[in-house]
Write a structure and sequence with these properties.
This protein is mainly alpha-helical. The protein is built from eight helices and no strands. The radius of gyration is 17 Å and the shape is globular. 39% of the residues are buried.
Length: 188
């Protein structure tokens, strides 16, 4: 189920970019412009739109891999909550902190959020299997952490940073409750 979900999601991103291209980039207007109250409504759609085929291509493989790992471990319902948490955290962070007159769109905030979620999940859930998965993900994708630094004016480090923080937050919000676990075990 996780593989089908992620393949469908990535296919949707490509279809949306094709539509954007065919309409002269009309969908780019749904990106987030900071501190404009009306732009808060664009936080969710902005996470599904991209600034060209190279942009969507760059996000596709990490979104597939990290999304699959997160959905496989969480289940579809919890996965939806995790993604919504990440999208809102990333989007609100962009809205609050990005430079004036900028427009931010793309799934990279979600990629960073899923990265943070997969890294944190094993520690939060006290699951050796998930800790090992998180360590493998850190070894494969750890270099993306450079993306939270403001080194390239054309890349939204804000979306990356707040997405990452949203993913770690989601690991706590959507942690597994162990059957029969006492309150002390859950808060430890």
């Amino acid at each position: 189920m996780a593989a089908v979900l992620m393949l469908g999601w990535v296919a949707l991103l490509w279809v949306l970019e094709l539509v954007d291209f065919a309409t002269g980039h009309a969908l780019d207007g749904y990106g987030v412009t900071p501190r404009e109250p009306s732009e808060l409504a664009d936080i969710v759609p902005a996470a599904f739109l991209h600034a060209g085929f190279g942009h969507v291509a760059a996000n596709s493989l990490p979104l597939l891999v990290l999304g699959f790992l997160a959905a496989m471990g969480a289940g579809v319902g919890r996965f939806a909550g995790i993604v919504l948490t990440v999208v809102v955290a990333s989007g609100v962070g962009v809205w609050l902190t990005s430079p004036p007159d900028s427009v931010t769109l793309g799934a990279s905030g979600v990629v960073f959020g899923l990265f943070g979620y997969v890294l944190a999940r094993g520690f939060v859930d006290h699951s050796l299997r998930d800790v090992l998965i998180g360590l493998a993900v850190a070894a494969l994708y750890g270099s993306i952490l450079w993306g939270v630094l403001p080194v390239d004016s054309g890349v939204s480090w804000q979306a990356h940073l707040f997405g990452l923080l949203g993913g770690v937050t989601a690991a706590f919000l959507f942690r597994r409750r162990r059957a029969g676990a006492g309150a002390a075990e859950l808060t430890a």
